[in-house]
Amino acid sequence: MLQGARVRLRPVTDGDVERIAHILAEPEVARWWGPYGIEQVRREMVGPQGDELTFVVELDGVAIGIIQRWEEHEPQYRHAGIDISLHPDWHGQGLGTDAVRTMARHLFDDLGHHRVTIDPAVHNERAIAAYRKVGFKPVGVMRKYERAPDGTWHDGLLMDLLPEDLT
After folding, report:
1. Where are the domains of the chain?
2. How many angstroms separate the Cα of 164 from the Cα of each of 52, 118, 134?
3. Sign of the CA dihedral 142, 134, 49, 108?
4. Who contacts 91 (Cβ-Cβ below 8 Å, separation ≥6)?
């Protein structure tokens, strides 16, 4: 378990699957993540998935979202990446920023990474602002990077964070 200033991060268990599916079904979340059914959540988010691990973001014992981390282990390119989603009821309170900061510290301090990346949609201004608060810097735009749930392609903003940038 990882403790932030206000949130706690812990690996997803079978007992979290329905709650996570509910969070991912929220329209404000599904517009970025697409539809996730219970079985897909169970298959893709419980336990390690190769180099990826999904954590529940908790506030006062309540699951309010998820944060994922993945690792590149190739020595010449070793780094890690983060992805996050919170239920809309908890947006705008600094909780996502706390979760991302907590995960970044873990990746730097405990797992020895020298760089962390994150790749929000270019038009996801709320997410980009939160990542900037942690210290992430824009690297560049990846054109037609990700297919949206409606089938259209949209651009992604690659951002990265070095230990000295972490706020």
Report:
1. 2-165
2. 24, 17, 11
3. positive
4. 28, 126
**Contact yes or no for 119/103 (Cβ under 8 A):** no
Q: How far apart are CA 150 and CA 157, in angstroms?
A: 19
Rounded to two decimals, what is the model's pTM? Answer: 0.93
Q: Does the domain formed by 2-165 have CATH 3.40.630.30?
A: yes
3-class DSSP state of 128: helix
The tens digit of pLDDT for each residue in 78-109 reads 899 999 999 999 999 999 999 999 999 999 99
Query: Alpha-carbon distance 152 to 37, whole Å?
Result: 21
* CA distance to 51, 71, 79, 91, 106, per residue, from 74 (Å): 12, 9, 9, 35, 19
SS3 10: strand
Q: Which two tokens stand for residue 154?
A: 């949209």
Angle between helices 125-134 and 95-105 (to 10 degrees): 50
